[in-house]
Prior knowledge:
Layout: H1 15-47, H2 52-55, H3 58-87, E1 94-101, E2 104-109, E3 116-119, E4 141-144, E5 149-155, E6 160-164, E7 169-173, E8 179-183, E9 189-195, E10 207-213, H4 215-226
Parallel strand pairs: 1-5, 4-10
Antiparallel strand pairs: 1-2, 2-3, 5-8, 6-7, 6-9, 9-10
Helix pairs in contact: 1-3
Amino acid sequence: MANHSQFGFQDASSPIMEELVEFHDHALMVALAICSLVLYLLALMLMEKLSSNTVDAQEVELVWTILPAIVLIMLALPSLQILYMMDEIDEPDLTLKAIGHQWYWTYEYTDFEDLSFDSYMLPTSELPLGHFRLLEVDHRVVIPMESPIRVIVTADDVLHSWAVPSLGVKTDAIPGRLNQTSFITTRPGIFYGQCSEICGANHSFMPIVVESTPLNHFENWSSLLSS
Length: 227
C-alpha cells in the first residue's frame, strides 16, 4: 500500500516486482553516472582551455562511440531478462479469470465448478473503520500464497486494465480477447490496485483487492464460497 509523499515503489510482494525494482535502481545509477560525466565535461570546457590535440583526438572519438553502446547493453540485457520472465507462464496452481465491466470486476475461478463473483467498490457510507476509501471492495480476490497464479484478463464492454502495483502486474482487458499474466505472492497480505485504463465516467471507482493467504485458509474460503 502506498503512503502519502512516497517517492519510491510499493513494497514488492512478488519475485517479478522485486526484479523490476532492482532494474529501476540499476537504471537510475546508470543515468546518474551519465549525468555526472556530462556535467563534469561541461564544467571542464567552461573552466579549462582544451587543446586542439584533445578536441581532434581519435581516441576520444572512439571512447564516446563505444561507451554509449556498452551503457545500452548494460540496460538492455537485464531488461530483456525481466520481459521474458514476465511473459513466461509455467504450470499454474490456480487460474483466475478477471472480466472488466463498467465499472466493476467479475472473477471466475476456473479450477472450481461454481466459484465466481462480482467485485464492486464499497461506497464511503458503508466503509468499515480502518479500511481505505476508494480502494476497498465487497468481495476480494483470495489466492494461496507462494503458488503460481495465472490470471486471464478480458473485458465485456470497453477497454480496462487489471493492475496491482505491488505484484508487478498490469494487463489490458480487451473485449473479445483473452490476455494472460502470472505472479507468485511471496508473503500473506492484502494488495490494492485499480483499473489503469480510462474506461468511462467511473473509471476511478473500480478498484482491485488481492488477498494472499496460506493454502489451508484458501481451501476453507473456497469451500465456503462454492457450497
